[in-house]
Amino acid sequence: MKKILIVGSTGQIGSELGIKLRSIYGVDNVVCGYYKPPFPENFFELGPTVEIDATDAQQIADAVKTHKIDAIYNLAAILSATAEKNPKLGWDVGMNSLINCLDVAKEHECAVFTPSSIGAFGPTTPKDKTPQDTVQRPTTIYGITKVTGELISDYYFRRWGVDTRSVRFPGIISNLTMPGGGTTDYAVEIFYNAVKGENFVCPVKAGTYMDMMYMPDALDAAVQIMEADPSKLIHRNSFNIASMSFDPEMIYQAIKKHYPDFVMEYDVDPLKQAIADSWPNSLDDTCAREEWGWNPKYDLDKMTADMIEVLKHKIKKYG
After folding, report:
1. Residue whose C-alpha is closest to residue 57's, from 72, 46, 42, 40
2. Is 142 considered catalytic here?
3. What is the pLDDT of residue 316?
4. Domain range list for the chain
5. Using CA atoms, how far apart are residues 313 and 297, in angstroms rounded to an integer?
6. In degrees, to the nearest 5, what angle opens at C-alpha 143 toward C-alphas 100 and 111?
7. What is the pLDDT of residues 211-253, one digit of tens each?
8. Spatial contact of 28 and 48, defined as CB atoms under 8 Å apart
9. pLDDT at 319
10. CA 201, CA 220: separation in Å to the nearest integer?
11. 90 pLDDT above the threshold of 70
């Protein structure tokens, strides 16, 4: 990759991916596409930006031509719980943005990264150590867009040689950006409450296991898959990746090692619980490890310590 365009750069992943990519490839070689506020701090001062509605193919094409882009990171999506409240919007953003990126990439010979998700699986998928290749019959519009995205990305690779690559992200835990309507958001929100000295009300019940990942590992995965030797890729869209699987009680106990008086209660959100119940408990990421060397750095305890340390300074500064 020489010149990169991030579509959807102001979301949870995009806000940090832009920083990561600029640290590797140079500030001027990473263009952050934005649609609407809120913007990360100093967003417009940190490097080149361009206004892009991901559902407008011409805006993407213009950015690619203007900035001589050779790799597109397409992060535009409506997250799981939010998409269930507006399925048409979830489909329009999730699929139209991808098709637009793929068409532009086909025309201008760009590589394309589009994240998939554990949401691409469904209730008939094996729950534990979910295989790389298995049943994918999701029951949410978010999951449906992710499965369709995997298939259409593989199609563009086979049919026209577009260099498409993807990973299935678990729930992402970030210390920089607040969550935006995902089923796994509780695993971010719980840290803020703990550091602020507030009780936490968990929206999913005890025993609800889901794969999770700390943002630094997620960013590494997004870079490493795009830098991987294509001759070694048996799969492309999309690779299982994993680092930790836990339920609410496990993350609660990990936090209580730092805040013994922290209190968590339950008030189950039926929508989020139903979505979580349809997803795997854990993923088998053997193929990612073997084909491009995937190796996460964070487990639950290491992530918890880092999250708390970062949030203490953040909350002290911003409240």
Report:
1. 72
2. yes
3. 78
4. 4-170+215-240, 171-212+244-282+299-318
5. 23
6. 35
7. 999 999 999 999 999 999 999 999 999 999 999 999 999 999 9
8. yes
9. 66
10. 31
11. yes
Q: Where does residue 288 rank: exposed (0-12), middle (13-18), buried (19+ CB within 10 A)? A: buried
CA distance 163 to 101: 12
Distance CA 314, CA 196 (A): 11
Percent of the chain with pLDDT over 70: 98
The CATH code that applies to domain 4-170+215-240 is 3.40.50.720
Tokens of 47: 């490097």
pTM, to two decimals: 0.92
171-212+244-282+299-318 has CATH 3.40.50 classification: no
CA distance 172 to 170: 6
Q: Which of 34, 35, 73, 142 is catalytic?
A: 142
Residue 1 has pLDDT above 70, yes or no: no
Q: C-alpha angle with apex 98: 12 to 4, nearest 5 degrees?
A: 65
Question: Which pLDDT does position 129 carry in this prediction?
Answer: 95
